[in-house]
Amino acid sequence: MHSPFVFDFILCVLNNKNDYQPPAEIEALRKSVLHHQKKIVVNDMGAGSRSNNTKEKTVAQIAKSALKPKKYAQLLFRLAKHYRPQTIIELGTSLGITTAYLATAHPHAKVITIEGSALIAEEAKTNFNQLRITNIEQRVGNFNSVLPSVIHQLPSVDLAYVDGNHRYQPTMDYFHQLLTTTNAHSILVFDDIHWSPEMEKAWQEIKQHPMVLCTVDIFFLGFVFFRNEFKVKQHFSIRF
Questions:
Q1: Contact indicator for 104, 74 with CB cutoff of 8 Å
Q2: Between the CA of residue 65 and those of 30, 94, 192, what are the distances in Å?
Q3: Which of 38, 42, 95 is nearest to 64 (CA)?
Q4: Labelling 203: which of 35, 44, 179, 234 has CA 20 to 30 A away?
């Protein structure tokens, strides 16, 4: 590993499971929603679920198909804890478990999370209130219309987690919109980069963009960096 920055990323973020311990209350809530039988109507604006794409679902069904595994949610917690971004955007709130990890990792950060379904967003709001998290701002609506207005209000985006419409064109649209407000220390994280041929295509194009100087591929997540110390592009695939 020749890059000091990537070495630090592996040591302090990917593999640091001792120093950055997230609140136990979030995992307790995860276990709770996995058994919650309340039914809500889902307005899925993305690529949908491969397992259950019906209109009416229980909270437990949504949780089983949409929640990031604990391993990856806690990785995002360590990412925010280590780099301490001041502004965080999340595309795809779902039930808010990953949002809670990002917000509690850096309580002074401004976290804006966007969800397409108003009823799911309400469930997430209930979860935020239960966890007593106060630095999350929720937006509801189609990412294509909500994201530009959010970006316009921010001086820059330090961390963005894109976990929404898993299609090629929307993913590239979000990427280019986020590029307008990134800085040298910004980090973009894309979910399920190998989910489909469309996502594979999007990930390859993101890697080749002139502004992207380094990427880290851990298969289920792709990390994009813009740091000036990279004089040439560097792309890493790391088993996690």
A1: no
A2: 13, 10, 13
A3: 95
A4: 44
Q: Is the pTM of this model over 0.90?
A: yes
User: Mapped to the 3 state alphabet, what secondary structure does the chain carry?
Assistant: CCCHHHHHHHHHHHCCCCCCCCCHHHHHHHHHHCCCCCEEECCCCCCCCCCCCCCEEEHHHHHHHHCCCHHHHHHHHHHHHHHCCCEEEEECCCCCHHHHHHHHHCCCCEEEEEECCHHHHHHHHHHHHHHCCCCEEEEECCHHHHHHHHHHCCCCCCEEEECCCCCHHHHHHHHHHHHCCCCCCCEEEEECCCCCHHHHHHHHHHHHCCCCCEEEECCCEEEEECCCCCCCCEEEECCC
Q: Which amino acid is at 40?
A: I
Beta bridge partners of 120: none
Cβ burial of 237 (10 Å; 0-12, 13-18, 19+) is exposed
* pLDDT tens for each residue of 200-221: 999 999 999 999 999 999 999 9
Tokens of 158: 């330090």
